[in-house]
Specification:
Strand content: 25-35%
Helix content: 25-40%
Protein name: Flagellar basal-body rod protein FlgF
Number of helices: 2
Organism: Paraburkholderia dinghuensis
Number of domains: 2
Largest sheet: 3 strands, antiparallel
Main location: other
Strand order of the largest sheet: 8-7-14
Keywords: Bacterial flagellum, Cell projection, Cilium, Flagellum
Distance between the termini: 19 Å
Family: Belongs to the flagella basal body rod proteins family.
Number of strands: 18
Structural class: alpha+beta
Shape: elongated
Length: 252
């Protein structure tokens, strides 16, 4: 009975965790540049004994969470006409300064200039350039070139007076070297800033949508719900068998 109870319990727990991941993905189906989170699990056999004798054997198998990953498939790019909107084409990330002051990376390119003259994301995270966060002259008209160059025209100046302010830092670390943090940003595994990659291509006056497939997410939610129901039924069955066994033992 012990085997059934603990096996079903571990399966039900992981079904709940996977449901939470899918629900979070579905909630961000309209979030700019969002990368779907993947729920990974692995089986962990529990053996009786230390394996040194032939009598030692696996008694049950548990389910445990493995290192979670992210779906790096690019999302759809849509034109906005906003000169501060950028969308990365293919692989790559925009470097920003996280709330902890360290460098982090995002695909959300819906940028704007805040009241302090800083170029920031929709979540007010400062965008990093060649020498740190990018600042622009107050009241100037800002544009972003196809290579990430940030240019500005001072109020009342002619278009020929446009001046380059800085260049946005784009990175493209090797696959598997970035981890998703709780704030939704990506960071290098060792915590060191990634090198700038000049080959990253962007589309201007456009943003990248979420790569979450809402239909697939809904199907996953239904599947997880049915798996959880199956696991809870196994727990109920184990309890009923336990009660029946206790009744039989009373008459022996």
């Amino acid at each position: 009975m012990d085997r059934l109870i603990y096996t079903a319990m571990s399966g039900a727990t992981q079904s709940l965790e996977q449901q939470a991941v899918v629900a979070n993905n579905l909630a961000n189906v309209s979030t700019t540049g969002f990368r779907a989170q993947l729920a990974n699990f692995r089986d962990v056999p529990m053996a009786f004994g230390d394996g040194s004798t032939v009598d030692d054997h696996t008694t049950r198998t548990f389910v445990l969470s493995a290192t979670p990953g992210s779906d790096m498939t690019p999302g759809a790019i849509s034109k906005t006409g906003n000169p501060l909107d950028i969308a990365i084409q293919g692989q790559g990330f925009i470097a920003v300064q996280g709330a902890d002051g360290n460098e982090a990376y995002t695909r959300a390119g819906n940028l704007h200039v805040d009241e302090n003259g800083q170029l920031v994301t929709a979540n007010n995270l400062q965008v990093i350039g060649t020498g740190g966060p990018i600042a622009v002259p107050p009241g100037s008209a800002v544009t972003i070139g196809s290579d990430g160059t940030v240019s500005a025209i001072a109020p009342g100046s002619q278009p020929v007076a446009i001046a380059m302010i800085d260049q946005i830092k784009f990175v493209n670390p090797p696959a598997g070297t970035l981890t998703r943090s709780d704030d939704g940003l990506f960071r290098t595994a060792d915590g060191n800033p990634a090198d700038a990659d000049p080959t990253v291509q962007i589309a201007t006056e456009a943003i990248e949508g979420s790569n979450v497939n809402p239909v697939a997410a809904m199907v996953s939610m239904i599947t997880n719900a049915r798996q959880f129901q199956m696991q809870t039924k196994l727990l109920q069955t184990a309890d009923q068998n336990d009660q029946t066994a206790n009744q039989l033992l009373q008459f022996t």
